[in-house]
Amino acid sequence: MKRDEGLELSPRKVEYLKYIRETGGTVKTSRIADRFGVDPSTVTKTIDELARSGLLIHEPYHGVRFSEAGREYAEFLLKRHRILSLVFSRFGLSGEEACREVSRFESLVSRAAVDRICRAMGHPSRGICGEITHATCGLGTPAGESMGRDAREETG
Ligand SMILES: [Zn+2]
Ligand SMILES: [Zn+2]
User: Fold this and answer.
1) Would you say 11 and 102 are in contact if contact means Cβ atoms under 8 Å apart?
2) What pLDDT does 50 receive?
3) Cα(152)–Cα(32) distance, integer angstroms
4) pLDDT for the residue 118
5) Which ligand is nearest to the CA of 116?
6) 106 plus 118 within the same structural domain
7) Which positions of the chain have pLDDT values less than 50?
8) Domain residues for 43?
9) 139 CA distance to ligand 2 middle (Å)
10) For FRET with 24, which of 16, 71, 79, 136 sits at 20 to 30 Å CA-CA?
Protein backbone atom coordinates (compact mmCIF):
# COMPACT_ATOMS: atom_id res chain seq x y z
CA MET A 1 0.00 0.00 0.00
CA LYS A 2 1.29 3.40 -0.96
CA ARG A 3 1.05 5.84 1.91
CA ASP A 4 2.77 8.88 0.56
CA GLU A 5 -0.15 11.01 -0.44
CA GLY A 6 -2.26 10.81 2.67
CA LEU A 7 -5.40 10.12 0.64
CA GLU A 8 -5.48 6.36 1.00
CA LEU A 9 -8.08 5.91 3.72
CA SER A 10 -11.80 6.49 4.00
CA PRO A 11 -13.09 8.97 6.59
CA ARG A 12 -14.23 6.06 8.76
CA LYS A 13 -10.81 4.46 8.77
CA VAL A 14 -9.23 7.80 9.57
CA GLU A 15 -11.53 8.21 12.57
CA TYR A 16 -10.79 4.70 13.83
CA LEU A 17 -7.03 5.18 13.55
CA LYS A 18 -7.13 8.55 15.30
CA TYR A 19 -9.19 7.01 18.08
CA ILE A 20 -6.82 4.05 18.48
CA ARG A 21 -3.90 6.47 18.54
CA GLU A 22 -5.51 8.63 21.21
CA THR A 23 -6.43 5.63 23.30
CA GLY A 24 -2.93 4.22 23.12
CA GLY A 25 -1.87 0.59 23.39
CA THR A 26 -4.19 -2.22 22.48
CA VAL A 27 -7.86 -1.44 21.93
CA LYS A 28 -10.71 -3.93 21.87
CA THR A 29 -12.92 -3.77 18.78
CA SER A 30 -16.00 -3.69 21.03
CA ARG A 31 -14.70 -0.45 22.50
CA ILE A 32 -14.34 1.05 19.03
CA ALA A 33 -17.86 -0.11 18.23
CA ASP A 34 -19.18 1.60 21.37
CA ARG A 35 -17.32 4.79 20.66
CA PHE A 36 -18.69 5.13 17.14
CA GLY A 37 -22.08 3.61 17.79
CA VAL A 38 -21.75 0.92 15.16
CA ASP A 39 -22.12 -2.84 15.11
CA PRO A 40 -19.02 -4.75 16.31
CA SER A 41 -19.04 -6.89 13.16
CA THR A 42 -18.78 -3.73 11.05
CA VAL A 43 -15.82 -2.58 13.08
CA THR A 44 -14.13 -5.97 12.77
CA LYS A 45 -14.48 -5.85 9.00
CA THR A 46 -12.91 -2.40 8.78
CA ILE A 47 -10.19 -3.33 11.27
CA ASP A 48 -9.32 -6.41 9.24
CA GLU A 49 -8.95 -4.26 6.14
CA LEU A 50 -6.59 -1.98 8.03
CA ALA A 51 -4.67 -5.02 9.24
CA ARG A 52 -4.35 -6.28 5.67
CA SER A 53 -2.99 -2.87 4.69
CA GLY A 54 -0.30 -3.38 7.29
CA LEU A 55 -1.38 -0.51 9.54
CA LEU A 56 -2.84 -2.52 12.40
CA ILE A 57 -2.13 -5.79 14.10
CA HIS A 58 -5.28 -7.62 15.13
CA GLU A 59 -4.96 -10.18 17.88
CA PRO A 60 -8.21 -12.09 18.23
CA TYR A 61 -9.74 -11.88 21.73
CA HIS A 62 -7.23 -9.23 22.66
CA GLY A 63 -7.69 -6.25 20.41
CA VAL A 64 -5.88 -4.14 17.84
CA ARG A 65 -2.69 -2.17 18.01
CA PHE A 66 -0.52 -0.30 15.55
CA SER A 67 2.23 -1.73 13.44
CA GLU A 68 5.27 0.51 13.08
CA ALA A 69 3.93 1.83 9.77
CA GLY A 70 0.52 2.33 11.29
CA ARG A 71 1.89 4.38 14.14
CA GLU A 72 3.69 6.67 11.71
CA TYR A 73 0.59 7.01 9.58
CA ALA A 74 -1.55 7.84 12.61
CA GLU A 75 0.89 10.60 13.54
CA PHE A 76 0.24 12.13 10.15
CA LEU A 77 -3.53 11.78 10.59
CA LEU A 78 -3.43 13.63 13.91
CA LYS A 79 -1.20 16.30 12.49
CA ARG A 80 -3.48 16.83 9.50
CA HIS A 81 -6.52 17.09 11.76
CA ARG A 82 -4.81 19.57 14.06
CA ILE A 83 -3.31 21.78 11.36
CA LEU A 84 -6.62 22.05 9.50
CA SER A 85 -8.67 22.69 12.63
CA LEU A 86 -6.20 25.36 13.65
CA VAL A 87 -6.82 27.10 10.32
CA PHE A 88 -10.59 27.00 10.89
CA SER A 89 -10.27 28.25 14.44
CA ARG A 90 -8.23 31.22 13.24
CA PHE A 91 -11.05 32.14 10.90
CA GLY A 92 -13.97 32.38 13.23
CA LEU A 93 -14.90 28.91 14.45
CA SER A 94 -14.68 27.78 18.06
CA GLY A 95 -12.25 24.99 18.76
CA GLU A 96 -14.98 22.42 19.03
CA GLU A 97 -16.64 23.54 15.80
CA ALA A 98 -13.32 23.53 13.98
CA CYS A 99 -12.56 19.96 15.06
CA ARG A 100 -15.99 18.77 14.02
CA GLU A 101 -16.01 20.46 10.61
CA VAL A 102 -12.51 19.28 9.77
CA SER A 103 -13.37 15.69 10.68
CA ARG A 104 -15.85 15.70 7.80
CA PHE A 105 -13.32 16.38 5.05
CA GLU A 106 -9.82 15.89 6.40
CA SER A 107 -9.37 12.54 4.67
CA LEU A 108 -9.44 14.40 1.32
CA VAL A 109 -6.50 16.71 2.06
CA SER A 110 -3.12 15.50 0.86
CA ARG A 111 0.01 15.16 2.93
CA ALA A 112 1.80 17.63 0.65
CA ALA A 113 -0.88 20.27 1.21
CA VAL A 114 -0.82 19.76 4.98
CA ASP A 115 2.95 20.15 5.07
CA ARG A 116 2.78 23.39 3.07
CA ILE A 117 0.04 24.82 5.27
CA CYS A 118 2.08 23.83 8.32
CA ARG A 119 5.07 25.67 6.93
CA ALA A 120 3.01 28.75 6.07
CA MET A 121 1.65 28.81 9.63
CA GLY A 122 5.17 28.73 11.05
CA HIS A 123 4.99 25.10 12.26
CA PRO A 124 2.69 25.61 15.26
CA SER A 125 3.49 23.26 18.12
CA ARG A 126 0.01 23.15 19.63
CA GLY A 127 -3.28 22.40 17.97
CA ILE A 128 -6.72 22.76 19.49
CA CYS A 129 -6.88 19.17 20.62
CA GLY A 130 -3.23 18.35 21.15
CA GLU A 131 0.39 18.66 20.17
CA ILE A 132 1.50 18.98 16.56
CA THR A 133 4.64 17.13 15.53
CA HIS A 134 6.71 18.08 12.50
CA ALA A 135 8.63 14.98 11.57
CA THR A 136 7.18 15.02 8.06
CA CYS A 137 7.41 18.67 7.12
CA GLY A 138 11.08 19.40 7.35
CA LEU A 139 11.10 20.43 10.98
CA GLY A 140 11.32 17.01 12.55
CA THR A 141 14.35 15.50 14.16
CA PRO A 142 15.88 13.23 11.56
CA ALA A 143 17.27 10.13 13.21
CA GLY A 144 20.69 10.76 14.64
CA GLU A 145 20.82 14.43 13.86
CA SER A 146 19.52 15.94 16.99
CA MET A 147 19.27 14.71 20.50
CA GLY A 148 16.41 15.29 22.84
CA ARG A 149 12.91 15.57 21.60
CA ASP A 150 11.67 18.81 20.15
CA ALA A 151 14.44 21.11 21.29
CA ARG A 152 12.71 23.76 19.23
CA GLU A 153 9.87 25.31 21.18
CA GLU A 154 7.53 27.60 19.36
CA THR A 155 6.28 30.47 21.39
CA GLY A 156 2.66 31.31 21.63
ZN1 LIG B 1 -9.56 18.18 17.05
ZN1 LIG C 1 5.47 21.65 10.46
Assistant:
1) no
2) 96
3) 35
4) 96
5) 2
6) yes
7) 1, 141-156
8) 11-70
9) 6
10) 136
Give residue 136's pLDDT.
75
Cα–Cα distance measured from residue 60 to residue 79, given in angstroms and rounded to the nearest whole number: 30
Ligand in nearest proximity to the CA of 87? 1
Distance 3 CA to ligand 1 centre (A): 22
Same domain, 109 and 86: yes
Domain count, the chain: 2
Distance 113 CA to ligand 2 centre (A): 11
pLDDT of amino acid 25: 84
Measured from the alpha carbon of residue 98, the closest ligand is: 1
Of the candidates 64, 37, 68, the residue with the CA atom closest to the CA atom of residue 50: 64
Cα of 9 vs centre of ligand 2, distance in Å, is: 22
Q: Cα(5) to centroid of ligand 2, in Å?
A: 16
Supply the pTM of this predicted model.
Answer: 0.82
> Within 13 Å, how many C-alpha atoms sit on residue 108's CB side?
5
* pLDDT tens-digit readout, 40-66: 999 999 999 999 999 999 998 889 999
Looking at the fold, whether 99 and 54 belong to one and the same domain comes out as no
Query: Does residue 49 sit in the same domain as residue 75?
Result: no
Question: What's the pLDDT score for residue 4?
Answer: 76
